[in-house]
Amino acid sequence: MTGLLLSLAGLWVLLAAVWVAVWPLFAGGGAPRSDADVERRELEAEKSRLLQEIHELELDYETGKLSDEDRSAIEARLKGRAVEVMRRIDALSPPANPPRREVYTGSDVLITR
Amino acid sequence: MSVYALGPLALWVGLALALYGAVIGHLGGWKRDPRMSNAAVGAVFGTSACVVLAYALLTAAFVTDQFQFSFVATNASRAMPVWYKAAAVWGGMAGSMLLWALILAGYSTAAMLVTRRRLPKLVPHAASVLMTIMAFFLVVMVFNSKPFERLDFLPVDGQGLNPLLQNHWMAAHPPSLYLGYVGWSIPFAFAIAALITARLGTEWISAMRKWSLVPFMFLTIGNLMGSHWAYIELGWGGYWGWDPVENSAIMPWFAGTAFLHSIMIQEKRGMLRMWNMALIVLTFSLTILGTFVTRSGIIESVHAFASTNVGIVFLSFLTFVIATSVGLIWWRSDLLTTENRLESFVSRESAFLFNNLLLLGIAFAIWWGTFFPILSEAFTGQRISVGPPFFNQVNGPLSIGLLLTLGIGPLIAWRRASRQNVERNFRVPVIVLLLAGVAAVALGLRAWYAVSVVAFSAFVAATVVQEMWRGTRARMRSKGTGPVASLIGLISRNRRRYGGYIVHIGVLFVFAGVAGSMFQLEQKAHLSPGDEIAIGGYRVEYRGGDIEQGPNYTATVANLTVSGEGGTPYRVRPERRFYPSGQEQTTSEVAIWSRMFEDFYAILEAFDPSTGSSDITLIVNPMLLWIWIGGGVMVFGTLIALSSPRPKAAGRPDEERGEEAERVGAVTA
């Protein structure tokens, strides 16, 4: 009896496995992610990476691994790129459920909405 | 219907779903069809469920002595403890393949869950690649090494697991090693996806950093467990014999470590794109090669390889992996050109590149030494052995060079190191290097290898301490906190970097252990009860032998009392065990008195019950404990690096957002 129940449970696992793999083809794929959403996510990831790099740049400078000249050059490049990325994020249409976000104001200030 | 009938069925259904996933993922990615892309992810989940079911059934067959299955009857016996029965699943080819598939299922499922929203364009192709790998292993289990193959008769008992493998370190070693091997499938799959989709920037590199640290950590643990097993079970006093199977396990570690370092250059400077692609392909290929070497029989002889088709199947898959990957890299070569060039040979980029070359040099030397006997047999008909002296002579100098880069890499400036930078950062570590070298010679060390290891280890330790001190001091200034709070804050805020430094400290300990063990002392003696013998700083008294009965073996035991310098006497009991069932094998169970700076190691070679005398081998291994301590420190450092939080894209606390604004705002002013 136990063997039969275990066999049935195993068969159910296999059927569920097939269902999980095949069902999405008939499920309509859910709400397709718009190109803007994908781009926004990618830009947000890029921004986070740039901010982390800026943080590490400061640490490298503090621990003597960058000259003043190199620090300035790299910092300007990273921050310039970060500002550009933030501008592009702001230029995208807002997502359906917008998270709180930063907006580049054109000067040296970021405000939170 | 027996529940075990579901085992082969689960493998067949899993294979069908894996093949379906391998096709539908690429289609979904190319057509940008979300239904097909979701179906590929669903195929990963479905295939994983099938593999988990098959693995659970095989484990149940082992634990409940289902000897009607050939694989169970060959690798288990009734007298084996339950734990070893469960571990015997991976004691042979078919079970090892299923363990590979199980771990791949776990990694693939986790990777899909974590990355499907973050990397939506890469995920369908990555799912396809993972399912292609999975399909290969399922093909091997369905058509070749069948874990559920039945015998024509029902044996009363099984042959039992090889007694040498009945050791808890050996039981845990294969899963850990496979967690390391298989884990490289994830960065490999996303690298291939990046090549297919032409998204070759830092996106996949950043996303795969932690997915690369995990297999690095498990390969470290797996190799150390294997070494520890060899040390305590094989009874020759060493821990690494440059055996082909050991070599196969360590090669991906070197290639993967090179990859972990070189991706930092791509993240920071946009360089080495093609190099990183090549490295991840190489690392993954070496994991397949390692499994192939262990399982194909090619190591024994090229003829043994040719006598089964498992080797040919593996070689075909390996060829497919390499050819496809190289083809894709060639196809995308225009997009893999570097953003920046190497500006100076005195720079961090250059140090990392040099470190990469050394790591790959070691991996190549190991590959050459491992495969030369096979190649010589294949081409000349004569097998020319390559022994430990070759590996030690080639890898010794390369390892010393590698040790040096461990110190130089973290200190030297990016792009181009100025004279001021070199003087400021290297003055103290170089003084420490010189003092340590002089001290080593003054203390009696003469071997160049040992003196170099001591001096360079001191250099690396000084660089790490200096780095931590400077970072702490900078944080004390900026935050106004005390030294301890600043150090904790520094590590906590920069876990990737300082976790890496801690790994380097662990490597130093391993080096210390390896260098120390080269000063091994050994003495053999025939001892009667009451006899005494001296070795190193120890006096050893033989107090006779015993015969004892274990759960599935009979043991002869020698009783030794060891007195160190001024310490309390310590009792050690080396054994020889005889396993009567199945393979009728004898094993040596050494006795080890492990101390901080040396191990006392005793081997019972033979015991004569009529006279009570024994043939004993005694060994003193300096510094050996530091290999295991170093491994623990490496794992700890990796865990710290792994614990670094992933930057969140949105919805962060105001304080963090304020810091962010401050960082970017400063430059726009």
Q: Note the gap between the termini of chain A.
A: 63 Å
Content-based structural category of chain A: mainly alpha
What's the multimeric state? heterodimer
Instruction: Return the average pLDDT of chain A rounded to an integer.
Output: 77
Radius of gyration of chain A: 25 Å
SSE arrangement of chain A, N to C:
HHHEE
Can you describe what's shown?
- The complex is a heterodimer of chains A (113) and B (669).
- Chain A is elongated and about 80 Å long.
- Chain A contains three helices and two strands, in the order αααββ.
- In chain A, 68% of the residues lie in helices and 5% in strands.
- Chain A is mostly helical.
- Chain A has a two-stranded antiparallel sheet.
- Chain B has 669 residues and is an alpha+beta fold.
- In chain B, 64% of the residues lie in helices and 11% in strands.
- In chain B, α1 (6-31) runs antiparallel to α2 (34-63), α1 packs antiparallel against α6 (123-144) and α11 packs antiparallel against α13 (310-331).
- The longest helix of chain B has 33 residues, at 348-380.
- Classes of the chains: A mainly alpha (113), B alpha+beta (669).
- The interface between A and B is large, with 66 and 74 residues.
